[in-house]
Amino acid sequence: MAYCEPTFKAAQMSDTGAEWQVAQRRKGAARKSKSVQVSHTCSQEELDIEKTVRRIRDTVSELSCEDFWPQWKVAGSAARSKHLQNGDTEGGPCQQLECVCYGLGSFSSSVSARFQLAMLLLLLDAGQIPLKDCSVYDPAFSRGEKAVLRELGLTVLTENEEGKRLATKPTLFYLMHCGKALYNNLLWRNWSVRHLPLVTLIGNSFTGMMDRTVEREFTRDYRYITEALSLCEERQLPCPSRLIDVFSDTAVVTFPSGGLERLPQSTWAELPEPQYTHCSDLEIIQRETQS
Ligand SMILES: C[S@@+](CC[C@H](N)C(=O)[O-])C[C@H]1O[C@@H](n2cnc3c(N)ncnc32)[C@H](O)[C@@H]1O
């Protein structure tokens, strides 16, 4: 399947100074920056693992000194306390929060992806989520990048889940600037009164996605995002203008269970798996063999 539409390339800011390429914006796509957008390619198989890990740790330190970090930190710790409270009120055991990160991008060549990875590490710390309980997947990861992620202590998934991960316990999903189909698939898989409240999502604002897409296409192709808009709570996270390519349009999306329980049963009936047959520019990479 053809992938990497121009806007996606725009997210890949290089910091290595290798081969640059101007990218163009797709009609209706999110504006990330007014500055010239660039992407680049390089051989990632020769990645210096130690140096890359050091660079990521430096970025973590840099981000933790940013004025906007405390507000993101609240989001990380709130995800944890929300689930601790739920455990208490429901009389069940308090379950440890886990994390799933899709679509981080090639962090050894992209400044945006490196900053997003550093932010993920900070959020895990804020939410007291053990590194091994954070699973990461992006088909763009090189062998070297997977080694870096393992060195950091994270769990690298080997299967393309297409975002269809069922939250069986409280889960923080971190999907930065990902294709709409990834969010839609995630919502489809968790579309029930039982599972949606277990989902805390840090990623693109659903409202922003809708505003940037032709309404007829949005409701046709992304039914679950469309319906989620009236069920979820969305809290925008701050982003300094300097880091607009990295953290723009990010929100914390949650599904308070009280509201879901009051909805008619029809909300949860007939849940066809998304097919995207009409999507001319599907923004995600699908599994090679479709079931
Ligand atoms: C627009 S890029 C965003 C990259 C980075 N987060 C950023 O903001 O620069 C979307 C990312 O989603 C990844 N992606 C595509 N299909 C995916 C899938 N099935 N599962 C996980 N990630 C996927 C792509 O490889 C790409 O890195």
Automatic annotation (TrEMBL):
InterPro entries: SRR1-like, SRR1L
Gene Ontology cellular component annotations, sorted alphabetically: cytoplasm; nucleus
Coiled-coil blocks: none
Similarity annotation: Belongs to the SRR1 family.
Residues making up the signal peptide according to the UniProt record: none
SRR1-like domain span: 95-252
Species per Swiss-Prot/TrEMBL record: Gasterosteus aculeatus aculeatus (three-spined stickleback)
Protein name, entry field: SRR1-like domain-containing protein
